Amino acid sequence: MNDKPAYFEHGADIGVIGRGPTLEDAFAEAARATFAIMAPPDEVAERLGVEIDFDEPDVEFALVTWLNRLLAEARLHGAVFGRFELSRTGAHYRGRAFGCQWHPAIARGTEVKGATLTALSVTQDENGWEARCVVDV
Predict the structure, then answer these.
(1) Helices 59-77 and 23-36, interaxial angle, to 10°?
(2) Spatial separation of the C-alpha atoms in residues 88 and 28, rounded to whole Å
(3) Residues 24/87, Cβ–Cβ less than 8 Å
(4) 77-112: per-residue pLDDT in tens?
(5) Can you give the pTM of this predicted structure?
(6) Which of 77, 84, 87, 130 has an alpha carbon within 20 to 30 A of 29's alpha carbon?
(7) Is the pLDDT of residue 8 over 60?
């Protein structure tokens, strides 16, 4: 028995970035980047929509909450999403995702299991907002 813990390297993470003139647009683009790992957005028809409501005062944690809630809804409905809308009033976020049920005509990419706190960053500069984090695949 070895007294030291053992580790190994693996490439099971991808960094996603969303940019936009508003925080909400940057979050929507981060969601689009996340779901584009799983399926090409141009192959996702808008046949169903889901609503996401949550409260989170910290904008960085709000990004992770948004992405993880979207991933949970996709799993719940057996769906993939391709378009996203988000509005915010203070710490309350209300969003919608539009997509369809998975079907054989949609090219399957890599499943995204969840958004993480790794490399989590939500920043604003003169060009707008950038939201980024690492997703586990």
Answers:
(1) 40
(2) 12
(3) yes
(4) 999 999 999 999 999 999 999 999 998 888 889 999
(5) 0.92
(6) 77
(7) no
